[in-house]
Design goal:
Layout: H1 8-22, H2 37-52, H3 61-76, H4 84-89, H5 98-110, E1 114-119, E2 122-127
Antiparallel strand pairs: 1-2
Length: 134
């Protein structure tokens, strides 16, 4: 079964175009309720405007939790840095795997709290320079 790929926005746009095309007095079949053409078109346009509004960017619960954990990890981070295994060894209950540690440290890098250091196959994270010249 094919996935429906039409959006509400494109469906309303098509309905407005079709309504413009089909709204001729001579074509109306008997029994069709008499509708105000401009009112229907305005309602469809309002609906289209509503679904076309951009959504506000929301921060997910997981992202908020990872930001909190990133701050907690960076506070405990030595100057020479951490690997993901060392973050797991800290014993924080919310960071039980190296995958979770990597996600938290990635957020720390995005927030500018830490920087990623790649040395061959070894990846570690060091605290960011706090206003010091590099």
């Amino acid at each position: 079964m094919a996935k429906n790929t039409i959006t509400r926005k494109s469906a309303l746009s098509a309905a407005i175009i079709a309504f413009d095309f089909l709204n001729m007095e001579a074509i109306r079949p008997d029994g069709m309720p008499d509708v105000d053409y401009m009112e229907v078109k305005q309602t469809l346009a309002n609906m289209l405007e509503q679904v076309s509004k951009p959504r506000a960017k929301a921060v997910s619960k997981a992202r908020k939790a990872n930001e909190y954990l990133a701050n907690a990890v960076v506070k405990q981070m030595p100057a020479d840095g951490f690997t993901t295994k060392e973050v797991v060894a800290l014993g924080l209950p919310d960071i039980a795997t190296t995958q979770k540690a990597a996600a938290v440290l990635r957020v720390a890098c995005e927030l500018g709290l830490a920087s990623k250091v790649v040395d061959g196959k070894k990846i570690s994270y060091k605290p960011a320079d706090n206003g010091e010249d590099a």
